[in-house]
Amino acid sequence: MKAAYKRVLLKLSGEALMGDRQFGIDPTVLKTFAKEIYDVHQLGVQIGIVIGGGNIFRGIQAAAHGINKVSGDQMGMLATVINSIAFQNALEELGVQTRLQTAIKMEQIAEPMIMRRAIRHLEKGRVVIFGAGTGNPYFTTDTAAVLRAIEIEAELIIKGTRVDGVYDSDPEKNGDAVLFKALTYKDVISQDLKVMDHTAITLCHENNLPIKVFNLNTKGNLLKLITGEEIGTIVKEKL
Q1: 193 and 183 in contact (C-beta within 8 Å)?
Q2: Which residues have a Cβ under 8 Å from the Cβ of 226 and sit 6 or more positions away?
Q3: Three-state DSSP state, 112
Q4: C-alpha to C-alpha distance for 237 and 239, rounded to whole angstroms
Q5: Range of the domain at 33
Q6: What is the rounded distance in angstroms from the CA atom of residue 77 to the CA atom of residue 71?
Q7: Does 85 reside within a domain?
Q8: What is the pLDDT of residues 78-93, one digit of tens each?
């Protein structure tokens, strides 16, 4: 089995770690996702990871309860670090060497985000997890994921979701939703499709970074994607 990509960045939502819970981290889901990454790592693929924090704290919801936007986003950044530490532990239990880098300095917990150091870790076969978003309020972890992917010169950004790709409407609410196999960046913005926020899509567009959206909950899907199977939805410059 041969990988189709040398270096990728995987974006996971914090909600994906909840499983069937209302909040927090489901240890079974955590271990399952870690095993998916382990299988890909065994092929020699260099992997960066960005995880959201919505399973612990969401800045948008905080704003509705009277917490100002900047404070809410900062709390959300810290939530991503909690998820990153949990994921780091799950990967290391499988024997995968990892490094956690954060956009906010916290030396007792993680390295600061340094592009050249991150690339060197990847070249040495370590999985690098990027926490704390961009380190700035008003930017999502989608945008952070794209930024990190560009910095480490990833060939592809992979977004793991609960559905099989990008649809014209929410497939969990509409049984007749249509799955797109391929889209351009302009399609995503003009049709307001829920792939990533517009800032992230624009960054991908400007840097010609393709996005693959797929169902991470289906066992073996990540390995299939990495080895070149046509699953999920691809978003790129031209079809």
Answers
A1: yes
A2: 3, 4, 5, 8, 40, 43, 45
A3: strand
A4: 7
A5: 7-236
A6: 10
A7: yes
A8: 999 999 999 999 999 9
Q: Which of 210, 213, 217, 235 is nearest to 225 (CA)?
A: 213
Q: Are the C-beta atoms of residues 76 and 61 closer than 8 Å to each other? A: no
Q: Residue 195 has what DSSP assignment?
A: S
The closest of 43, 33, 29 to 10, measured between CA atoms, is: 33
Q: What CATH number does residue 76 fall under?
A: 3.40.1160.10
What is the domain count for the chain?
1
Position 1 in a domain: no
Predicted pLDDT of residue 5: 97
Q: Is residue 26 part of a domain?
A: yes
CA dihedral 27, 88, 203, 212 (to 10 degrees): -50
Residues 6+ away with beta carbon under 8 Å from 99:
111, 118, 121, 126, 127, 128, 129
In the block, tokens 């609410």 appear at 173
The pTM assigned to this predicted structure is 0.94
The least confident of 32-36, 81-85, 111-115, 216-220 is 216-220
Q: Are strands 166-167 and 111-112 parallel, antiparallel or unpaired?
A: unpaired
Q: Which residues pair with 129 in a beta bridge?
A: 49, 100
Beta carbons within 10 angstroms of residue 100's beta carbon: 21
Q: Are strands 156-161 and 179-180 parallel, antiparallel or unpaired?
A: unpaired
